[in-house]
């Protein structure tokens, strides 16, 4: 295997880009404190729970597919959503507006202007109960709280760079998974809050200590290990998982060389590969019913269009959106009660019954 330092100019440039993005990826991670609060929240608590967050990300995936937005738009929207939820005390009734706002902001940053649908169409297809003015106001709040001037470094950034490096180092005889297939797996991972957490606490068994070497500490009779999430490691884990499924030794050797050159710790890659494998198994199982069975309603008749157009002016505005930030010592008792009935923010419009939310090859894996 040839060392990455002594390859052609194009590959060397890709490696430099990888290193440059790794040095910046921590600036675009959600705040750990806010994610921990979200993860510990129950469905009937005052704040947004992990389940509601995951359902909203699945909604964004459906909307991305319907409007023909790129994967870059979806990944950026999820990044904005997580970063915003991690620093703000959000009431569940505002989550639909926040989610669509993040998608609209991402689309304006990524897509060509001619490919961006009108705001009222985005609201209508999402089946949300807020107005264009609500969306505009929410976008201003999100833009004010997050730094949108800099280009966010996400797992998709690394996925494309890794894929380009592998192509440059692979002979034409080798079968390389398409970038679209890898992107689909990454999008499935992003529908789980655990892949956004900045730090994970693991309790190790004595038999696991060899895998983690000296990067753990002992707490009484237990061994505790902290894993720090990095988008670069998640992207490499997705690629590793795919190459293992293909049983391609040549590809795995390239991945190991990239891992060594970027100084990615074995234990971290091992852990995230396990989570990616678990996520892929869940999505390929017959029991998986994501998103929910509620369908988007396509407008086909003139009368229906006229009725919906009239309803645009009768939608009540949302109440004033509080702008309090999470504090580590703050109490959550000031939030309003969360309702998870018919109009629950946990509900998802899902995807068109005729379309596929997740590529067919993953849904069929569990049946082999």
UniProtKB/TrEMBL annotation:
Origin: domain of life: Eukaryota
Keywords associated with the record: Cyclin
Compositionally biased region (Acidic residues): 329-344
Residue ranges of the region described as Disordered: 314-368
SUPFAM superfamilies (alphabetical): Cyclin-like
DNA repair listed as a keyword: no
InterPro entries: Cyclin (IPR039361), Cyclin-like_dom (IPR013763), Cyclin-like_sf (IPR036915), Cyclin_N (IPR006671)
Protein known as: Cyclin G2
Species of provenance: Hucho hucho (huchen)
